[in-house]
Amino acid sequence: MKKVLAGLAIAAGLIASTGVASAQTTLRVANWLPPSHPLVSDIIKPWIEDVNKVTEGRVVLELLKAPLGPPPAHFDFAVNGVADITYGVHNYTPGRFVATSIAELPFLSNTSEALSVAYWNVHEKYLAGANEHKGTHVLSVFTHGPGQLWTKGRDLTSLDGIAGSKIRIGGGIAQDVATALDLVPVQAPVTKAYELLSGGVADGIQFPAESVAFFNIQNVVDSGLVVDGGLYNVSFFVVMNGAKWDSLSDADKEAIMSVSGESLALRAGKAWDAADQRGYDAMKEKGITFVRPEGAAADALKAKLAGVEADAVERISEKGVDAAAALAALKAGVAGE
Hints:
The protein is an alpha/beta fold. The protein has helices at residues 2-23, 38-54, 74-80, 112-127, 173-180, 193-198, 209-214, 242-247, 250-258, 261-285, 295-317, 323-334; strands at residues 25-29, 59-63, 85-89, 136-143, 148-151, 166-168, 184-186, 204-207, 223-225, 235-241, 289-291.
């Protein structure tokens, strides 16, 4: 009898230990940026630590050390379960995400913090219904800081001075802005930016101040068109595979979202703003000239780009979104209303 009881005790211990092990869920977070990049070091990594903490170790996020593939593939990595969680840039897959372009329009905000928080709330109220993130659960959306135009050897005091300039640009609304300003787009990976500018292949680049410093662009440009509210922004996502999200307990879902959503958008915004300030400091040390359009120059710029907003509202409306109301709410949110 003693042997039987001992055997049962051992079995119970094994079952208990197995239960503890199975209670912990480990989720793989895909990564395609170097660890020193602000998006990784100041946003994703601290968020991972927060998730591990608020779930009391029941859900453990692990950031992968090597990329699973190119950045544009990362949304589908989450959809298909290649990774459990991914982050990325919406406009890396042209035409796929339309509603999210509302956060990329010119003149929206001088800070990522204000825009990112407002964007998350507008996404939840107006944009989520477009179901552009199908197959995933959206953990957060946010933007980087205001994108500006940085050039070498160009007169930035008038629109005529930049017309015809060869500019390395990203996709999305940034492309529309470049076209409206009569710039000549140069398509190339961001990692080739320094090479393009130093070799004279491009006359400039569209970048937030953070990226100017991170990619050492301050060494190959001499002036920047710094526009109130920015010329454009870039929208980011953090998503989890839908089935994986559904497999979590309600308690863990609630815990994860307590440090995601608006909380993660706020963290991201503050991190981008701090990185932008470091970028401006680096450019000031290099003696780069900042041209800030005011008065008639600012009015001319806004008139030139008026069609960008109108076209975006029309495209977004075709997705079944009340784009006019969403944009008004976004602007009000940025203004703190």
